[in-house]
Amino acid sequence: MNRLDRMVWVDLETTGLDPAKDVILELAITITDGDFTLLDYEHWVVARCVPEERQPAHPIVQGMHDKSGLWEECRMARLGLATVEEEAVSFLKRVAPDYKGPICGASPHFDMSFLKVELPKLAAMFNHRTFDVSTLKQFLMQKTGEPWPKGKEAHRALPDILESIEVAKQFARVVCP
């Protein structure tokens, strides 16, 4: 395993936790260097007639996306899922050509499970590894007994992913002062 000169961070907002019945509403991709410096980012809201598509959202998810304004943005959005995937793949090829590294984020296995179902071309651009800031926070809590300070939890893809990058930077300062 080599040190990465580029890291690709992904965050999704969805209608729930099950990729077999729930759908992607929002996608953000950010690119950092190996020191977690933001280099580029892109963000898409998927045109969905939600929550009517597939299963209705869980009431907690419904309220979360009502509060954040995501439901309304999905109703107003013009990009379908196929276009979002095409643009996301094009973005990644442009800013991180030949990337075959891990998917990075907070619990990126969750995001990958949805990518494999709804955006398989994008999912195929990552290797089998993950860089998971949730695991880093859990590790620190296990070792120190202190929970990581709670984040803003915007429940929007781009702010959440930027927060994950900040967690990685803070963790690096703690572990490698």
Outline the secondary-structure elements.
Layout: E1 7-14, E2 24-32, E3 38-45, H1 59-68, H2 70-76, H3 81-95, E4 103-105, H4 108-118, H5 120-123, E5 130-132, H6 133-144, H7 157-175
Parallel strand pairs: 1-4, 4-5
Antiparallel strand pairs: 1-2, 2-3
Helix pairs in contact: 6-7
Q: How would you portray this structure in words?
A:
The structure is a single chain. It is built from 7 helices and 5 strands. The protein has a 5-stranded mixed β-sheet with strand order 3-2-1-4-5, sandwiched between helices. The mean pLDDT is 89. Helices cover 44% and strands 18% of the residues. It has 177 residues and is of the alpha/beta class. Helix 6 packs across helix 7 (157-175).
Mean pLDDT score: 89
Q: Biggest sheet: strands, sense, closure?
A: 5 strands, mixed
Q: Which word captures the global form?
A: globular
The amount of helix comes to: 40-55%
User: From the 3D coordinates, which CATH architecture would you assign?
Assistant: 2-Layer Sandwich
What is the fold-level CATH name, i.e. the topology? Nucleotidyltransferase, domain 5
CATH class: Alpha Beta
Percent of residues in β-strands: 15-25%
Instruction: Give the SSE string.
Output: EEEHHHEHHEHH
Q: How many distinct folded domains? A: 1
Q: Label the structural class.
A: alpha/beta
- Counting H and I runs of at least 4 residues, what is the number of helices? 7
Find the CATH superfamily. Ribonuclease H-like superfamily/Ribonuclease H
Span between termini: 23 Å
Low-confidence stretches: none
